[in-house]
Amino acid sequence: MPELPEMENYKLLLSEKVVGKSVSEVIVTREKTINVPVTQFTTEVQGRTIMAIERRAKHLLFKLDSGKSLLLHLMLGGLMYVADEEGEIDRTKQVTLSLGAMKLFFIGLRLGYLHLVTEEQVQEAFSDLGPEPLEPTFKENLFQELIAKRRGMLKTTLVNQKFLAGIGNLYSDEICFEAQVLQIRKANELTDEEIKQLFKAIHTILQRGIRLGGYMDVPVHKKDQLTGNYSNHCYVYEREGLPCPRCGGVIIKDVISSRKSFYCKQCQK
Fold first, then answer.
1. In order of start, what are the domains of the chain with their CATH numbers?
2. Looking at the annotation, which residues are catalytic?
3. What pLDDT, on a 0 to 100 scale, did the predictor assign at position 86?
4. For 28-139, where are the alpha helices, taking DSSP H only?
5. Sheet strand arrangement including 79-83
6. Nearest CA to 30 among 144, 106, 119?
7. pLDDT digits (tens, 9 = 90+) for 221-262
8. Model pTM?
9. Which residues contact 156 (CB under 8 A, 6 or more apart)?
10. Which of helix, strand or coil describes residue 50?
11. How far apart are CA 188 and CA 46, in angstroms?
């Protein structure tokens, strides 16, 4: 499932392509993907201009000039692709937005969704989300307060969207590796120094993920050479049996709270 770096990468690359463009045609091929009747969705989106794209946690918001937004959650298997007239992608599309000569495809949204929402509905949808870890307001003292209240393992704490917004399975493992702590450690039992390391690791890993284009394996458009590069630079995730890039120990694959997890037992404590 796409996490914060993947969705931030989508936001940045799509903003270059579609912000300021008007929607000339709407095609919905799977009604369950949207939240209103197809005729209403088409009427309210067609002819509207995409004013901005914003990210919150693992969601994207396509802000329309009507004051409403398209709220996207890709969930497992979802992706987006921008094509010109010669750049069709051979995937099943659930929603297609034509933007002049370009088309924005929403693909693989069997579990995900693209909802037409008001500002009130946006606020309601995001009301239970925790802080954005890369926001300037997210300081170390706030992180210390939040984590002191948690009794569970680091793995389940980091992926809990009510604790922090946007971190999932892959980056929780990478963060724990960077901080040199095991995912099975109890959050409230970390030392002050380990909390500092974890706070720093969250910023380091998420920013690295964005810089390397996340791990999605399909580019955003045909000239996109950034998306997916993190897959080739993971420290531990999906590297079972390979040497640890820090100490040379063997990377272990395990299941923690029903989630596959990867770590180096030699240098993560």
1. 4-125 (3.20.190.10), 140-264 (1.10.8.50)
2. 2-3, 58, 259
3. 67
4. 38-45, 119-125
5. 25-28, 93-99, 102-107, 79-83
6. 106
7. 999 999 999 999 999 999 999 999 999 999 999 999 999 999
8. 0.95
9. 256, 257
10. strand
11. 50
